[in-house]
Design a protein that fits this description.
The protein contains 17 helices and 17 strands. With 459 residues, the protein is α/β, with parallel strands linked by helices. Helix 1 packs across helix 3, helix 2 crosses helix 3 and helix 9 crosses helix 10.
Length: 459
Amino acid sequence: MSRLSMSYMSLGLSLPASLAVASAADAPPPITRTSAPHRFRPDTIRVKANTPVVLHSPNKDTEDEEARACRVARGERHAGRHTPARQHAGVQTSDLSLRRGIPRTDRYRAPGGAMRHVHMQTLPSLRPLGLPVFLLLACLGSSHLVQAQTEEVVVYSARAHYGQEPAFEAFTKETGIVIKSFGGNPGELFERLKAEGDQTPADVLISVDAGDLWNAAQAGLLAPIDSAELRANIPVHLRDESNRWFGLTVRARTIMYNTQKVKPDELSTYEALGNPKWKNRLCLRTSSHIYNQSLLATMIKHHGEARAEPIIRAWVANNPTLINSDTRILEAIAAGQCDVGLTNSYYLGRLLAKDAHFPVAPFWANQQTTGTHVNISGAGVTAHAKHRAQAIKLLEFLARPAAQQLFVDSNLEYPANPQTPVHPILAAWGTFKHDDVNIAAAGEFQAAAIKLADRAGYK
């Protein structure tokens, strides 16, 4: 009996008459390895397997091409041998950024001299070696394909630098659905999704700023979600009006001050940081960072460019010290290099968790006017998700109080779901009035914010 017949029988199918006789021309072309150096190329062949693999060329005398192709499709180095992925409690992670963390590739020469690259990562493809789909079904086994369709979610996450997400582990434990998480910075993940198009393996995009999510939605990379649970759990100003993305955590970008040098009654608003009394006493992050671009964007939303620009010019006139790190800004305030600054709230929470006597405290800006600027870390389902139902289930899970609590405890952020208690460190700061402008303004006015900063001399 031919392998083709056995392949169909393994799926409970009979071999079609049109395929009963296969000529030698129908066989996959031989593949031979070259000694060329490893390089990443856009024509990467991605081999779908349950685990990343490192291929070794088998003995041609003992293994024919069809058997070898099946072995590769199953993810085997040699018969019955696998190289395990990094996995923790059902969550597989890898850094697939465009400029760093590129997984290893091997190069093979196909007939005719064309160089091809085999990508050693867990990325989906049904035809890695030009095999007919029916043969790959037999190679992989129907149970493997059912698992790939129903029991995994692929996540592109810009939160990977925060470490393993306990909420992901809890989701896998509750549902049995494995999360495969691939990290990168927001710009890299955006470009990757655009480049992959409908071939992307990603089901969910998680990013750390509403502006990034707005840009992804505008580019057609995210799809609307019809979920009554998400709409009920996430306040309207923390989600996309078309339900393409939802906030999962909240971070306030507010005034931070040295508790030994500044009294709270000296502070009031973002606008007042342009008062000459703060000359040479102010620390700011550079205007090129998305967090400040989003703050300026919401100021434009509230005031219009004509009123917002003089505010930023006044900041610049106070000769601020520019530091491109929220943590280092807080450390500079504590050391007396500057007395006040603007940072995200969770950076201070982290430092206080290490040292309860760290001499910096938050002041909630604009409590008598617009409220303190807040931003989100949020997520959306990709437009070409292969596991859409499971992706929506993940987002719904992450918006529930139990999962929100895990976010709060792991990164000292505020929960997006208002029914979730905040961490004790944050609770000690008291409650504050949020700016309730829809955070989509961070993306809508991002380009205008960049131009305004440039005109005002804010570098």
